[in-house]
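Ops channel
N.P.: pipeline sanity check, posting one input/output pair.
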């Protein structure tokens, strides 16, 4: 009964949870705060009864289909795994973004400013979110004692997205959301962000060979591990040398199937245990992780015999001239992300 009450409570809690906070009736607000307090005290049976009452108020006030209400929270349903290897840790670096345009991929990134201040953000393609104030829905894992817990929250987040001046990239601050979740549920979010030290400049990239094995984490055609809320991993190879700016732009090419939903996916070189050194042509014992870039588009071959470079769409569409994918993807080099640091410093200093 206790377990049943807890599951019921967690389902109700997420139905009541909105980000950001919207104007609410005083009665609903009072009941909602009471539910959260009882849950944190592990008084699940009492909390479930109050939650049911609060839900009735919420349904009457907002309606069941209110677009700003998060839709689900999975309690006790996922398989607990302690990520230890690099490829396992990267499973907790991305989010599946559901927008008005369809599905795309976003990822966590941690900026480090001059004063040692760390700023977590979400990053994706501009064409995934479409507008600077786009509402996005996604799921987050909760942490318990800094470890992965069984709780997963799905929510709708409305915030300001900052667009890159030239490239198909956008970011939004993640900390306001994390703080909101902490206040509401008394829990932290479990994430493993990509960091600046994974970004290599062209001089370091010259130590790589023209053909390197790469991995891409994302949600092709929206597919993912729904039960455990984890992305899928695609593999391929570099199709242009990582150190060369393809066609004179901060872009690279990979030989990989890049389907709708993969836009915004991080592409990395991940060598666990050993790798081959270019200069010495020998096997180096150790691991190596390089954040190459972010998928944004690729060439397609249409029925008229023309090759056209297009953004990777966020949804599958039927068009009069069917494009044929040729299993190549274009990525924006990760160093471009660092252009955002100046914008971030300017915003924070205000």
């Amino acid at each position: 009964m206790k377990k049943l009450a807890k599951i019921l409570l967690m389902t109700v809690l997420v139905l009541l949870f909105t980000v950001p906070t919207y104007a609410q009736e005083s009665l609903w607000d009072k009941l909602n705060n009471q539910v959260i307090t009882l849950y944190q005290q592990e008084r699940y049976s009492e909390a479930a009864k109050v939650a049911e009452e609060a839900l009735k108020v919420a349904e009457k006030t907002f309606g069941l289909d209110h677009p700003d209400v998060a839709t689900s929270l999975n309690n006790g349903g996922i398989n607990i795994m302690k990520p230890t290897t690099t490829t396992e840790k990267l499973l907790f670096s991305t989010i599946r973004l559901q927008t008005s345009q369809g599905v795309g991929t976003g990822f966590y990134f941690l900026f480090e400013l001059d004063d040692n201040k760390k700023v977590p953000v979400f990053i994706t393609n501009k064409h995934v979110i479409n507008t600077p104030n786009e509402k996005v829905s996604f799921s987050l894992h909760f942490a318990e004692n800094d470890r992965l817990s069984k709780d997963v929250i799905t929510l709708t987040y409305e915030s300001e997205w900052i667009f890159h001046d030239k490239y198909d990239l956008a970011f939004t601050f993640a900390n306001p959301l994390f703080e909101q979740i902490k206040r509401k549920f008394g829990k932290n979010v479990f994430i493993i962000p990509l960091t600046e030290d994974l970004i290599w400049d062209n001089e370091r990239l010259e130590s790589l060979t023209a053909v390197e094995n790469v991995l891409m984490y994302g949600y092709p055609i929206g597919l993912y591990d729904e039960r455990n809320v984890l992305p899928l991993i695609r593999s391929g190879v570099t199709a242009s040398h990582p150190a060369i700016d393809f066609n004179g732009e901060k872009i690279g090419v990979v030989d990989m199937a890049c389907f709708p939903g993969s836009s915004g996916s991080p592409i990395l070189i991940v060598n666990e245990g050993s790798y081959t050194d270019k200069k010495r042509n020998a096997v180096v014992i150790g691991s190596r992780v390089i954040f190459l870039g972010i998928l944004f588009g690729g060439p397609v071959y249409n029925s008229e015999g023309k090759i056209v470079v297009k953004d990777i769409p966020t949804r599958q569409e039927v068009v009069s001239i069917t494009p044929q994918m040729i299993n190549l993807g274009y990525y924006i080099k990760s160093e471009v992300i660092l252009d955002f640091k100046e914008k971030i410093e300017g915003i924070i200093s205000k």
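N.P.: looks fine end to end. Residues 44-62 form the longest helix (19 residues).
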